[in-house]
Amino acid sequence: MDRMMDQAEQTDQNTPPPSQQPKRKRGAMAIIGLFARLIITLAILAGAGFFAFQLVSSRPEPPERQARERTFTVRTIEATVQTAQPNLTYFGEIVAAGALDVRAQVAGEIVEIHPDLAVGNQLAQGDLIARIDDFTYRGALTEAKASLAEAQLAATEARERLQLERDNLSFAQEQLDLSKKDLERAQTLLQSGALTQKNVDDRELLVSQREQALKQRQANIAIQQAQLDRQLASMERFEWQVERAERNLANTEIRAPFDAVVSAESIAPGKIVNANEALVSLYRQDQLDVRFTMSDRQYGQIFADGLIGRPIRVVWEVEPQNLTAKGTITRAGAQIDAAKGGVEVFARLENAEASTFRPGTFVKILVPGRAYEDVIRLPETAIYDNRLIYTIEEGRMVPHDAEIMARDGAQLLVRADVADGAKVITTRLAQAGDGLAVVEEGEAPPIPPRDPARAENRGERDNPNGQEREGRRPPQQQTQASENEEPAS
Predict the structure, then answer these.
(1) Which segments within 6-127 are labelled E, that is strand?
(2) CB-based burial, 355-383: b 16+ in 10 Å, e otherwise
(3) HSE-CB of 401 using CA atoms within 13 angstroms
(4) Which residues have a Cβ under 8 Å from the Cβ of 67 and sit 6 or more positions away?
(5) How far apart are CA 122 and CA 118, in angstroms?
(6) Is the peptide bond before 320 cis (omega within 30 degrees of 0)?
(7) How many CB atoms lie under 10 A from the CB of residue 57?
(8) Which residues form a coiled coil (predicted)?
(9) Which is nearest to 237 in space by CA: 135, 136, 154?
(10) Is 52 helix (H, G, I), strand (E, B) or coil?
(11) Which of 1, 274, 378, 410 has its CB surrounded by the most CB atoms within 10 Å?
């Protein structure tokens, strides 16, 4: 291009001045110069376009990327179709069913107490809790026994006098019978003239006297019987006084009525106590109840399935290991508790571990609920929208309709049309859906199939020997060669 411009300049220099040329020749030369510049400009543009075309056509083809399906790793659980009975969880309180306030039956001074008498300590049945001074009560017993002895002696005397009167009555009856027979003989002899009327009158008088004597004996017997009854009544009164004195004397020793734990005490040696004053509070170790509240709906369900006698499990959540005990529901409350909104239920603790519990302990109670047939036990993460579960079949998620029957702690009892042993997905996936590719945790993901077309393209681009393929140069060399080439004029 520069050469052509130099030639044009030389041509212009060799051209005679305008004054020496005709006007027509100067106009033709100007048109020729303009045309030459236009041709040069077009040549330059064509060369640049050809160079760009060569660059684009020599560029290596980009590798074709095939869309790869994403595979999710999930956890699974084998479905086991079974009959399950979920546990209903409640919270309640341990109460003492066999609580007792031990009171003093007699008044007096405390002279002795149990050496281990303190709140929380245990007492065995029959252990001496306290002893009251028994001097007054021993004296009362002695007096009662003496009075009883005197009454017994008086009763014996009255009994002997009564027996004597009974014997006299028998003798008087015999005498009366004899006098009546003698009167009958005298009356017979009077008719024959052997006796006079006076003799008959004397015998009639004798009969009358003996009848009077018989009546007197009968009256004496009644009097002696009344005296004997009075003495016997006195003797019974004195016997009761002796028994009371003996009981009062025995009550000076206050003993544990059963194996118990001391929950409160307010005695000390030297203290003067009154009758019926509370000394200690005890509760039975083998009679602890747990009290909790059931809702109306749960109470109705369990009552229909059998409430009384239903076994339960009680858990006291302590460190380092929870304490547990078994029990049995024994009774329900007499009325609905409006404040708590349910029915109070009581259960008796049974096993030996119950002795470690204390009244007032806040515990968790597990009560077996209704039994459900043909259900599977799954975690909550396996349920979608409360109606779907997914299984793995040939590496894909398959949905199944599910119905939640009950809750058992952190798990759900679900009824679904799933074969026994099927692998139910328990991992929560936001992309969950029918046909989603998944792999079970611990298994290798599937290898995608090889694409022949993609391998062929890769083979054309690869040069294992490090040599250029025929008809194609590296882009850098093509660019350098294009820059060294001069554009055609």
Answers:
(1) 72-74, 76-78, 82-84, 87-96, 99-103, 108-113, 122-123
(2) eebeeebebbbbbebeebeebbbbeeebb
(3) 0
(4) none
(5) 9
(6) yes
(7) 9
(8) 141-189, 228-255
(9) 154
(10) helix
(11) 378
Mean confidence (pLDDT) of the chain: 80
| DSSP letter for each residue of 150-198 | HHHHHHHHHHHHHHHHHHHHHHHHHHHHHHHHHHHHHHHHHHHTSS-HH
Helix, strand, coil percentages in the chain from 3-state DSSP, rounded to 5 = 40, 30, 30
- Of residues 250, 292, 285, the one with CA closest to residue 104: 250
DSSP assignment of 423-467 equals EEE-S--TT--TT-BEEETTSPPPPPPP-HHHHHHHHHH--TTS-
What pTM value is reported for the model?
A: 0.54
400 burial type by CB count under 10 A (0-12 exposed, 13-18 middle, 19+ buried): middle
Helices 197-251/135-192 angle, 10° precision: 170
Q: Which long-range contacts (CB under 8 A, 24 or more apart) does 473-481 make?
A: 473/58, 475/55, 475/58, 475/59, 475/60, 478/54, 478/55, 478/58, 479/55
Residue 352 — pLDDT band, cuts 50, 70, 90?
low
The pair of structure tokens assigned to 151 is: 């009454």
pLDDT in tens, 228-275: 888 888 888 999 999 999 999 999 999 999 888 898 888 899 999 999
CA angle in degrees (0–180, nearest 5) for 321-327-329: 140
Strand partners, 96: 288
300's enclosing H/E stretch is helix 296-305
How would you class 309 by CB atoms within 10 Å of its CB: exposed for 0-12, middle for 13-18, buried for 19 or more? exposed
Query: Between the CA of residue 275 and those of 244, 249, 250, 269, 278, what are the distances in Å?
Result: 14, 13, 14, 17, 9
- When comparing pLDDT for 447 and 53, which is higher? 53
DSSP label of 360: T
b/e sequence 91-130, b meaning 16+ C-beta within 10 Å: ebebbbbbebebebebebebeebbeebeeeeebeeeeebb
CA distance 203 to 174: 15
- Scan for tokens 């003698």, then name that residue: 182
Of 350, 359, 354, 362, give the one whose Cα is nearest residue 292: 362
Percentage of residues in the chain with pLDDT exceeding 70?
Answer: 82
Rg (alpha carbons) of the chain, rounded to whole number: 64
Distance CA 397, CA 69 (A): 14
- Round to whole Å and give the CA distance between 290 and 329: 9
SS3 label, residue 20: coil
